[in-house]
Prior knowledge:
The complex is a heterodimer.
Chain A: H1 3-36, H2 39-61, H3 70-85, H4 91-113, H5 118-138, E1 155-156, E2 160-161, H6 165-188, H7 190-200, H8 202-207, H9 212-238, H10 248-261, H11 268-282, H12 289-304, H13 308-317
Antiparallel strand pairs in A: 1-2
Chain B: E1 2-3, E2 6-7, H1 10-41, H2 48-66, H3 70-91, H4 101-123, E3 139-141, E4 146-148, H5 149-171, H6 173-183, H7 185-190, H8 195-217, H9 227-242, H10 247-267, H11 275-286
Antiparallel strand pairs in B: 1-2, 3-4
Helix pairs in contact in B: 1-5, 1-8, 1-9, 1-10, 2-3, 2-4, 2-8, 2-9, 3-8, 5-6, 9-10, 9-11
Amino acid sequence: MSVKAVVAADVTERNRKANAVAFGVMVALIAIAPFVAYPFFIMQALCFALFACAFNLLIGYVNLLSLGHAMFLGLASYVCAHAAKVWGLEPVSAIAIGVLAAGALGFLTGALAIRSSGIYFAMITVAFSQMVYFFCVEAPFTHGEDGIQAVPQGRALGLFDLSNPWILYVFVAIVFLFGFLSIQRIVNSPFGEILKAIRENEPRVVSLGYRSMQYKLAAFTLSAALAGLAGATKAIVAQNASLTDVSFAMSGEVVLMTLVGGMGTFYGPVLGALIVVSMQNYLAQFGEWVTVIQGVVFVACVLAFRRGIVGELAARAKISL
Amino acid sequence: MTIFGHVISWPQLYGQLLIGLINGSFYALLSLGLAVIFGMLTIVNFAHGAFYMMGAFGAYFLLQLAGLNYWWALVLSPLIIGAVGALVERLFLKRLAGFDPLYSLLLTFGLALIFQGLFQNYFGASGMPYAIPKQLSGAYNLGFMFLPVYRGWVIVASMVVCFGTWLVIEKTKLGAYLRAGTENPTMVRAFGINVPRMVTLTYAFGVALAAFAGVLAAPINQVRPGMGADIIAVVFAVVVIGGMGSILGSILTGFVLGVVEGLTKVFYPEASNTVVFVIMAIVLLIRPAGLFGRTA
Lengths: 321, 296
């Protein structure tokens, strides 16, 4: 083995260990959290963390900035709430239908949006999400300003009664970990390697014979479906679906979460989501100042802290998390 | 006549056509500002809606605090907000010049949150009325409809400013410097032109256009903190449809889409909020770079 290969193997080994430790810490924290904090708050934070991870799959590994990701979160949330309440489906099937809806929307909008990149792509996603927002305002099944209320939590797979808060917590934790590990699996797969190669140098990937458009579309659809998983689960947790989840502000918040935690890191979006959700929770009494503070954090991160918290820590320790 | 099950009357058609032209005036001014900024700085200014809102508030404050009327506001508010824009460029955007343009986009997004949050904090979500100046009140009788004078004025003022901007950029020496600076800033600098100052002034000018649109809008729509956020997504769609490469394209697309939106309100009201986005999807299918755009 050459020296270079030995060093590379060494780095991979270090990364593997660091990730194993980080994952262990995260699972332990999720297990302890409901005993020290309000479980409903943690469940909501986990949904947003999954949402941010899904968003990060695009910005972090394909360098596509979507500013309309709320459309996937919100649509899946509505569809899941509708399926559970009106069609009377059990929660796992309702969530699956929500995920399918978000994935389908992702495929359609993605097919049009990925023809452009950079700022164009960002503007197109804004426009599409606004369109979905107006659709949700007008469509009868979403009940406009009222939203869908009193969504039944039901029995998951007919066995586990989710109206029991402890069972619900375990359920949400499993959904989150499933989504989180799926994203890790996607990024570390050969498919993920090509995504990262597209991020670094798309023309070169094309010249090697890969159809970069299909890879980007697949990544966009996966990201949309995972964002949908977060939204659908959130509808079961909060027992409602509302316009907030499809709004432009929500699309901005997921960018903030990912930026604060660290774009292109596995654990950054999770930490970022926890920070942003806590910020909203504890600063709620200050009304619109929350928006101002979020804006200031945005500006500060972009100007001075582009790697985010986890990105900065990983860079200092020379590992990738 | 009856189309899509809706009974359509001529006065309603003219009325919506007029509203469409008015909205088109705002779309044109805003997308023109975005195009001018994009040309020189290659960034999308997500704070554009916030600057539009601040332009309207500028007019409101000038009247309330300094007693300066509409005509003063029409000049002063864009100048003041433009100066804020120049400050933003100098303090923030300049530092991000070497980085991925996505960071500048995120920066302007953050600034938009700050501006909007601040105004929402002090003024809530409700609107402040702003009176139509008395020289422009009343209406013309055009025979087939009444045209409120102020609405006619907005359309004319917007057209004059838009085409004036186009003339300056395409036909004057200053415009030639700008276009050259877009193509090759290093070379233009070698000729002794202060490119960084030109960049600052370009950004300030684009922002001033948004503020100008805001002052025009103040007497029509109320002065509200959320007015920028409401319009900006449509303006982005307009920019995508027109394509970023062309100044004239952004003006024309703005007016045309305003009218299309107005007509949709008559013929198929359910779709009036989404029609611009549907057109955007169709244009993206056929011409990904936009109707007037060069390939991105």
